[in-house]
Amino acid sequence: MTALTETAPDRRVVLSTLWIVLVLNYLYCDVLVLHDPEHLEAIRSGVVAGIEFTPGFLVGAGLLMQIPILMVLLSRVLRRRVNRWANIVAAAVMAVVQVSTLFLEGTPAPVYVFFSVIEIALLLVVIGYAVTWTRTETAKVPQW
């Protein structure tokens, strides 16, 4: 018998896990921000950071959040080349959105800034991890 050896983790699993961590950060940030009295009052008024929360805006926000949610699954099932580019594009889009929210009208709550820094860092890790994914790595595609 040979000794146990460490192997590199499957990039699909790592990328999918990073997206899960991102989704959890997005959710928990939104929950905690609801405890900020000024933000809660703005939500009640229907206008947050100069943006009116219309039904159309809320659908758009829901569609935007489908990007990281879908990437949890797509990171596990797409072939390497498509997977790599999907992760790079999705993370870049979400990073631009996250950075831009920090510069909306008014000052964001400190807890929002805290989570935004974490989310932007994680998105940069996704991009870096996807960019460095080479063809020579063995792929373990699930058999369905």
Q: How would you describe what is shown here?
A:
- By secondary structure, the chain is mainly α.
- It has helices at 11-33, 37-45, 55-77, 80-101, 110-131; strands at residues 47-48, 51-52.
- A two-stranded antiparallel ribbon has the order 1-2.
- Helix 1 (11-33) runs antiparallel to helix 5 (110-131), helix 3 (55-77) packs antiparallel against helix 4 (80-101) and helix 4 runs antiparallel to helix 5 (110-131).
- The longest helix is centred in the N-terminal third of the chain and has 23 residues, at 11-33.
- It starts with 10 loop residues before the first helix and ends in a 13-residue tail after the last helix.
- The mean pLDDT is 90.
Short structural summary:
It contains 5 helices and 2 strands; from the N terminus they run H-H-E-E-H-H-H. It has helices spanning 11-33, 37-45, 55-77, 80-101, 110-131; strands at residues 47-48, 51-52.
Task: Supply database-style keywords.
144 residues; mainly alpha; 3% strand
Helix count? Answer: 5
Strand order within the widest sheet?
1-2
Q: What class do helices, strands and sheet pairing give?
A: mainly alpha
Q: Any low-confidence stretches, pLDDT <50, length ≥5?
A: none
Helix content: 55-70%
Roughly how many Å apart are the termini? 31 Å
Please compute the radius of gyration using only Cα atoms.
18 Å
DSSP strand (E) fraction? under 5%
- List SSEs in N-to-C order: HHEEHHH
The largest sheet is: 2 strands, antiparallel
Number of strands: 2
pLDDT averaged over residues: 90
